[in-house]
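Appendix B. Extra example for self-study. Work through it before the problem class; the solution is given directly after the inputs so you can check yourself.
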Amino acid sequence: MSELGLIAELLVNGVLFGAMYGVAAIGLSLIFGTMGIIFLAQGAMIVLGGYAAYWAFRLLDVDPYVMLFLLLPVSLLVGSAMYQLLFRRAAAMQDKNTSLLIAVGLSFMLESAMSLVWTPDPRSITTSYTSSSVHFLGMNWSITRTAGFFVAIASALSVTQFLRRTMIGKAVRATSEDMTSAALVGIAPHRVNMIAFAIGIALAGIAGCTLAATYTIDPYFGFLLSLKALIALALGGLGHVGGALAGGVLLGLIESGSSYVFPGWGDAFGYAAFLLVLMFRPQGLFVRTVTKA
Amino acid sequence: MANPPLLEVRGLSAGYGDSQVLWEVSLSVPRGSLVAIVGANGAGKSTLLKTVSGLVRPTAGDIVFDGRSIAGMAPQQIVAAGLSHVPEGRGLFTRMTVLENLQLGAYPTQVRARMNESLERIFELFPRLAERRNQRAGLMSGGEQQMLAIGRAVMACPKLLILDEPSMGLAPLIVDEVFRFVKKLHATGVTIVLVEQNIQSALRLADRAYVLKTGRVVMQGSGAELLANEEIHKAYIGSLG
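Solution. Structure tokens for the complete assembly:
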């Protein structure tokens, strides 16, 4: 393959993988907007979703993309239950550190539990189509990566529609902007927190399924994923679904692009971009600044 | 009195952490009245309203609204009971549209079914909100934002509407317009508590007024009485008024 074709393919793969960061970032953004914490266990929840897909495939022969739809209602329920059990009391407190520490503790607990259940060895799902690809526009498009990208777009669109069209979605947006005013129009904070949290966990489940269908996973991959989602969020800007997705795609591009020029330096460039954006454009790259009148 | 007041505040004390702001404040708001609460900056007016609407927890005393105690209830429960608070600074959702802000005003389940009726009512009272319904709230002028904030509170079909400094930061002509709007609303039967630094305008509108000073009620009477009061003139309105 030509040098140019190789670069193009690398960049495309960066975009496709970055969309998964974007899905994780949308979840972080929703949870941050309502509960005011960076949910650092998001990555561990993604990996857990990946292991659920892995088990469904190995034990019950369920295709990971079928599992995605099965996991959706389950993860919404799990997310609601997690909010009620773990965060309800801490979320009512003025001091957000307690919630943050619960998230960190949860992340480590999940890592240990997953390494006990599934061992620290990397696992992967090998279906008949896992390594196949389609030749299109002079490039090879991996089926699973491309599918992951479209799942990400569909997730972002669904969340956007939910936030725009439903009353509870509007309540989530209102709470993200101004918690006090939201309470004054009659929005109960716990309900909105729980719904945003449940959607965040559902997005983790979705990202986990597409991740496990494409790559190998191990129990300790989660924390890195949380960081990547946080970087994507910083690039895209808080509080905008489209921005979070775009931030993820951009991070994927930075990582794959820089690892082509400087092999092995992908992560370093990702973190550098994170710092540069926070230093020079802390509101994110894709946010139009609105001055409050 | 044959009719019990819609809102009665009895010996209310409240504050933030260790600093007490309100000292045994008592006041009463009859049904259908417009009551003004006036006083200088830092007199505790906003804290009083925040305590009534549930944003600040009272440390002593009681708040009886429509026959039951609401002291210590959560803000969303108080809105659902029929008491809407338009906070200082308006508290709009600036990134959302005018229509979305109004829709969220009808969030409590009891009033949500009446959302379309309420919307029509507000668009009738204030046609400019209808024209701007798809505009982002943050991009409107100050006066329009204040109308929207009041309109959003009215969407909850409140029995009592409490307004914190609706004239703040507005040009005099716009202030007149806001007060006309408040008067119109009052005429439709909504009981109103109005907190103002613009004391003359507030006293002219009010049936009854309370003067707050360092967290205590220091004077009360009808709007006209206080307007004619020598002390009030000296302290708050000034010789030019």
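Self-check: The CA atoms of residues 183 and 189 of chain A lie 7 Å apart. If your reasoning did not lead you there, revisit section 3.
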